[in-house]
Structures are given as structure tokens and as C-alpha cells.
Specification:
By secondary structure, the protein is of the alpha+beta class. It is built from 16 helices and 15 strands. The strands form 4 sheets. Strands 5-4-6-15-9 form a 5-stranded mixed sheet. Strands 10, 11, 12, 13 and 14 form a 5-stranded mixed sheet that branches. A 3-stranded antiparallel sheet has the order 1-2-3, with no helix packed on it. α15 packs antiparallel against α16. The longest helix is centred in the last third of the chain and has 17 residues. 48% of the residues are buried.
Length: 443
Amino acid sequence: MKGKKLISILCAAGMTASLLTVGSSTVLAADTYDTQAIENAGDITLTMMVSGTETQNDFETTVLPELVKKKWPNVTLEVTKLPDDNYYTALKTRLASGECPDIILVQPMYAGSNSCYGLAEAGYLADLSDMECLSLYPDVSGMTYEDTVYALPNGISILGTYYNKDMFEECGITEEPKTWDEFLDACAKIKEKGYTPIVMGDKDQYVMQFGLYQLACNVIYSENPDYDEQLRTGDTEFTDEGTWDRVLEMYNQLYEEGYIDAAQSLGTGASQAIQQFIDGKAAMTFDGSFNVTALKAEGEGGNFERGYFPLPGDRDDGKVYTATCLSAGNAIYSGSKYIDECKELLDYWHNGESDIWDAFIATGKYNMPYGNGVETSENYELFKPFVDLMDQGCAFHWCNQAWPAGTEGTMEELFSEMIGGQGTEVSDITEGMQDKFEDLLDD
């Protein structure tokens, strides 16, 4: 995805269908679904399954069902929330058994075992092209497969660099780095002052994506936005000079210079790294907007002011690009008995003004570009620079969204070996990624 592309529904007198512009594609949407389905359904129970960690007064499991019951007394919404790995396993089992919940969480494009494209191709998802809230959304191309919309993203997800503003000031860093050299200089100043520049929880290898994908936006996609599509046609490869070799070299430099302590990071989990950051034990960490609540919590280091900036690359023109794209979102199981009822519920939720919408935005977890309360939401100012870059066409999808699931795992495993001193080199990583990518495409 590059930039923000407005979606609009164009209606004409006497027409029973509408033209839906999604990114650069035009979709012939079906007749509008029954928008009074819930009111005519009698007493019903709708089921929903999402991934994540349940919290106190959790939006999905507590607030949402209560608000649905308030809006429609005849509807009981039962929500199951599972940790990521358990969710993927449960979803696979329930889809295979034909007993899938009515509403499920899917990832954009090809990301993960619950990818929108994969599930749509397999016939598991209902067509959502006739939903009214699509007229409000920015680009939903990552949820659109073969000109059909199959899911509603829960907002925009960002990968960036959280930093301790107090520590930056103490180290004489007065501005957020805008170039790779400025970033390295900031790391050097922090290290000279006796602080840890960057903490990462590389024991959970998936966090390696958080820095690598930011660099890839600046090094690879800014030069060739079609790089991932060309991987599938064979016109590009992970082994191409000046692409992933350069990204991996730059990220590895942070470990070689001691700006990330490899020995410590390989023994530290993702949640431990977040704790160390909020305890004031490191100046920076690479992480996503999805973890903002945890990263803004008060730790032993006190409630210091946080900042968030995109990790810059080494571009000659000084431009910065960001890994900012659609987040996971809700889809409707094609085998549901209540497809129209689920559409009505989701339309109300995402209409930009309902009480469900307001509660959704109030969580502070989701960055949405439209509707009530967006500009006053808790993290609007923190995320705004990334959305501005997206508006300017300086944002790209996360790499794993375009790869067959498992490619990123090979990257993480081999990079872990390299920083762990096992003799693995950059060329081994790029060759391993290419081999895995080709194997997965052939499956």
C-alpha cells in the first residue's frame, strides 16, 4: 500500500448495484445487504473470535458485547479472545470442522495463517463489498482479493522507534534523527553517556521484524514499490544486491557497535524488553503502535515523556519512509447463518459515530483516520507523523504481509544465528529467505 487512497461508493439513479473504488481497482458491488436483518431476526447469538491478551474491562470481550446488547436487546455477542498462537490453531481447527465463529480476525494480504488473501481464496470469507462503512475507509486494498472486499481493518498499524525524551535531552540529542548517520550518532552519544541505546527482546524472534521492516521501507520499497510483486514473478530476488543485503547489514551494525547488546537481547523476551524500556534502562526500542499502552505505562524509571519516530534509512535525498499500513481486522465466516446480521453489526461499529465506535477509539490502541474522537484520541499526536507520511505516499506495507507465511521465520532464525556469533553471514540469510520463499510458493 502506498499512501492513502480514498474509497467511495458511487450511486446512480435506477441502479441496483454500486461501483466501489478500492485502491486502483474497481469492484462491482452486490445489492445492498439487508440492513434490518438484526431487527427481523428474533433472539440470536452471534459469535466472534479474536487474538490478543484479555485485559481489565477489555473492549472485545466486555465492552463490545455490552454495547451490542444495549443497541440490540435481541442479540447476544459471545467473544473468545486467545493468545496469538492459540488463536491460529483454534481458527484452523474450527474452519476445518465447519464450526467457525461468525466473525473472525484476519491479517492483511498474505500475512500469517489467518491471512485475508489465503482465507478468501479458500472460500472461508463472506463478501463485504456492499457494506456502507466502506465509503469512509482509506485504502482497503490489503483486505481486497480479486476485486472483492473481505475484511474491515481495525485501523492503521505502525512500526516505529519509541524513545525516552528525557534521556535524549540528557545526552544532548535535541531532534529526532532524520538520517541513518544521525541515528547512529544519537546511539553513540547515548552509549558514551553510559546508557543502553536500544533494548530488544530477540528471544522472541518476531521482534526482529520491527527494525528490519522499517529499514526495508527506506532501502528497498522507496526505490521499488513493486518489489514484493516482482518477487512472485521472479523479476526480483532476496539475493539482489543493494536490497535485503543492505537492510541486514544496516540492522546488524546496531549489534556490532553494541547499540543493541546481542547477548542480552537473545536472552530477553518481548515483554521483558518493554519493561526495561519503561523502567528507563534503555533510550529506545523498536515496536509497534499495537503495544503503545504497554510502552507508555509507568515503570521504575518514572513517567518520562515518550516520543515515536520512523527509523530512517541512508537515502541521499534525506527522505524518510515508514512501515505504516492496514492493521488486522474483522471478517465474516462465509458459512455463518447470520452474514447480514454480522454486516449490520460491523457497519454500526465502524460508522465513525456510534457508541461502539467511540468505545473502540477510546481504547487508544487503534489509529483510525476518520470519525468521532480520532483527533482527540489518546495517542493521536504520537501517531500523527506516521499518518502524515502515509498521506504523502511515504508509507509501505509490512514485508510479511506480502510474503508466504514462514518466509519471515527463516529471516529471523538466520539473523539470530548471525548476531549470536554462529558464523552465519548476510548472504546466508538472503539465500535462505529466497529458498524458503520459493518453496512456499510451490506448496
